[in-house]
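Reviewer 2 asked us to include a model.

Predict the structure of this chain.
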Amino acid sequence: MKFRSSGIRILFTAGLLIAAEFAVGTLSARAATETSPIISSIGNQVQHKLAMLPWNGVFDNLEYQVNGSEVILSGQVLSEHATTKSEAEADVKHIPGVTRVVNEIEVLPLSGFDNQIRRAEYRTIFSQGDLGRYTLGAIPPVRIIVKNGHATLEGVVMNQMDKDMAGIVANSVPGVFSVTNNLRID
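Predicted model (structure tokens):
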């Protein structure tokens, strides 16, 4: 393209610079809001490492959050599975790209009373026809956390009816002080 006057050339160049600056600004804003492939890869690897822990069962709840190259572990494990806390941290530290692991996993206190509630909650919830399917698999999608007589349902169910049913039957267990239904619908 040939320009006859320097004024037009200056305006054209300024227009290109403004367009380029807008494009770079838009890309930067988009990159800040999207999950980078590295963070997504770390998340997938953390999820896999936690799933492979040997004592991760229906009465344990392991969660994580990835902030850049930092991984924050949280949740609860039975005191009988206290080594799961340190094993989770050790396994996640070895993931390429992870620079720091914050281990906030709570080891639940040893309690015969809580163990009775756990067993009763398990029998009551999973004996319901449609809820029995959530006991299948190496890591159950529904987990029952009991601390000091208070029960919390964690995990994922297929629909609102299953979530509501689990909450209702969990509240019917004798001796439980309260039930918090944190089940999510997938």
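The helical segments are 6-33, 37-51, 83-93, 112-126, 160-171. The beta strands are 61-67, 70-77, 100-103, 106-107, 142-147, 150-157, 178-181, 184-185. We have added this to the supplementary material.
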